[in-house]
Write a structure and sequence with these properties.
Elements: H1 2-29, H2 33-37, H3 40-50, H4 55-79, H5 86-124, H6 127-133, H7 138-176, H8 181-191, H9 194-221, H10 227-256
């Protein structure tokens, strides 16, 4: 029993220490954010590296999610005589929920793991230590541009995911299942609200971008300077980042839904 208590105490200490390290690292980032915006070239390079190069994955993911969503929802809607509402149902699901969440999960798996590995490799090859010896803050020149690029990229990728997803739902619903094309698009215009649906999706994707990007740069910066340490940092980035995205999604959805 004493062994279990000791392990629990050590686990609690590790959790408190990690939480404190999160806070300290975040407050180290904050002063450099305005200064980084004055040098957009570094941010644009990182947006291309982690955002544009993730575009094909996001587009394929959105297309197939939209197609599956149309197939799954049609069988339910047709039972209630509401097959023409397929477009509105798919659009609301994509814009409010599936677009931000799935795009962020794909982004965490592809881009954030790459960022954690890249920064961790810089730690392992002593590039970060070399910058510190030259009185150059690696937080400003390495971490902040990647963090800002991730925060900017996720909402844009989520919007593309939702748009391509609606195209996939349209192809399946109209050309495969026979839903009227005019009713498909008109119901989207009537049902999808700019503030309740679109703004909700944008806010979620922005928060997810902050969470996933911060996890990537934090794990990479504090990775053990070994091959195993870099690998573990990339793995933790994907696993913990994905769990955080789902947890934050639940919290934000609870606040945003009317009557909850």
């Amino acid at each position: 029993m004493s062994g279990l208590v000791r392990e629990g105490w050590l686990g609690f200490r590790e959790f408190v220490g990690t939480f404190g390290a999160f806070q300290m690292f975040f407050f180290r980032l904050l002063p450099y954010l305005p200064k980084a915006l004055l040098r957009p070239r570094l941010i644009i390079e990182q947006i291309y590296s982690i955002g544009v190069l993730s575009l094909v994955l996001i587009m394929f993911g959105g297309f197939f999610v939209g197609m599956v969503l149309a197939l799954q929802s049609y069988s339910t809607l047709v039972e209630f005589g509401s097959a023409d509402s397929l477009g509105a149902f798919a659009a609301e699901a994509l814009v409010r929920e599936l677009g931000p969440v799935v795009a962020s999960l794909l982004f965490a798996g592809r881009a954030c793991s790459a960022v954690a590995s890249e920064v961790g490799l810089m730690r392992a090859t002593e590039q970060i230590s070399a910058l510190e010896l030259m009185a150059v803050d690696p937080i400003e020149h390495i971490i902040v541009p990647r963090f800002i690029a991730g925060v900017i990229s996720v909402p844009l990728l989520a919007a593309i995911f939702s748009t391509i997803g609606m195209l996939g739902a349209y192809l399946v619903g109209v050309h495969l299942l026979g839903v009227d094309s005019g009713a498909f698009w008109s119901n989207i215009q009537v049902r999808v609200d700019m503030y309740e649906d679109v703004a909700s999706g944008i806010l979620k994707s922005f928060v997810f971008g902050v969470s996933a990007s911060f996890m990537a740069v934090f794990e990479g910066y504090y990775a053990a300077p070994t091959a195993a340490g870099v690998s573990q940092a990339a793995t933790r980035t994907v696993v913990i980042g994905s769990v955080w995205i789902l947890l934050i999604d639940f919290i934000l959805t609870g606040f945003m839904l009317p009557g909850v």
